[in-house]
Write a structure and sequence with these properties.
Oligomer: single chain
Distance between the termini: 28 Å
Number of domains: 1
Largest sheet: 8 strands, parallel, barrel
Strand content: 15-25%
CATH topology: TIM Barrel
Shape: globular
Radius of gyration: 18 Å
Order of helices and strands: EHHEHEHEHEHEHEHEHH
CATH architecture: Alpha-Beta Barrel
Helix content: 40-55%
CATH class: Alpha Beta
Strand order of the largest sheet: 1-2-3-4-5-6-7-8
Structural class: alpha/beta
Length: 292
């Protein structure tokens, strides 16, 4: 099992969020030309990860998260370059968890053979969308598969603001408590992630409490702070809270790194090389910030 430490992830596994929200395509009816266009953009993000490594960041600390739909060539390239990579198995753009490949999810994992298996789960303990029992059983199956095959399981936990509370109040007073409850529920179902990929937490004491929860009972688990498509300053704020907290391995920042350069390239404002350089520079900025 590959478990980088510190952990610098560049996630670009977005499918519906990439094709539909960014480019205006319809995921289920994309043409071969549209699929090729998205795949090319993702290759640019991958090239920025390689340039980050070439700049001197240890390869063992850099991780990419990519999807099998648009990133098959990238998966092969990551394997060739011996770069740690994760792939996603959840159906994209859904409020409840289900497998992108349906009952064939195990076959998909055998084919892709990632170092890390990632699931994205939207989960409000009091307002679960969909069949609660089925989702928990599915996630337990993933957890057991990862244990049996010596793969790291990454659980991306998103807590929706189902009560529509004031956003700042929700982020500081409600979400941290809901995260603790969700972790307990998943643990009680035998779901044992190696990494918990979570949105930034505003207060250090809440992050410490969360890390204690995921490591309860001597569990070998760590948190990864995601960027949520926020600006650089906001991501820095979350990383400042997380740095040096026991149980936080690093970060996973994607759209904050690649979105603006890709859109500028697509509109013809900058060259391909310039877009890749901009992505590399921002990714390196966060790595340097984390290390400082």
């Amino acid at each position: 099992m590959r478990t980088p430490s510190p952990f610098f992830m560049l996630p670009f596994d977005h499918r519906a969020g990439f094709a539909e929200k960014i480019l205006g395509f319809t995921l289920d009816t994309m043409s071969s030309a549209e699929i090729a266009e998205v795949s090319e953009y993702k290759k640019m993000v991958w090239e920025s990860a390689l340039k980050t490594i070439a700049s001197g960041v240890p390869k063992d600390n850099v991780v990419i998260l990519v999807d099998g739909l648009f990133g098959k060539e990238i998966i092969e390239s990551a394997r060739k370059h011996n770069v740690t990579f994760a792939t996603c198995i959840e159906k994209s753009g859904q409020d409840s968890f289900s497998f992108d490949a349906g009952e064939n999810w195990r076959a998909r994992l055998y084919e892709e053979n990632p170092d890390i298996v990632k699931t994205l789960v939207r989960w409000h303990p009091d307002h679960v969308v969909g069949d609660r029992k089925l989702q928990l059983e599915s996630l337990n199956a993933v957890s057991q598969w990862c244990i049996e095959h010596d793969k790291a399981f990454m659980f991306e936990l998103l807590i929706p603001n189902s009560e529509k509370k004031d956003n700042l109040f929700f982020e500081t007073e409600i979400r941290p408590q809901l995260m603790q409850r969700a972790v307990e529920e998943f643990h009680n179902m035998g779901i044992e992630p190696r990494y918990w990929k979570v949105e930034g937490i505003e207060r250090r004491e809440d992050l410490i409490t969360f890390c204690n929860a995921i490591r309860k009972g001597g569990r070998n688990a760590e948190a990864i702070i995601l960027g949520r498509n926020e600006g650089i300053q906001k991501v820095e704020q979350w990383l400042a809270v997380a740095k040096n907290v026991e149980g936080v391995a690093g970060f996973a920042v994607g759209r904050t790194v690649f979105l603006e350069p890709l859109l500028a390239f697509r509109s013809g404002k900058i060259s391909r090389a310039s877009a890749i350089k901009k992505m590399t520079d921002v990714f390196l900025h966060f790595i340097t910030y984390w290390r400082a």
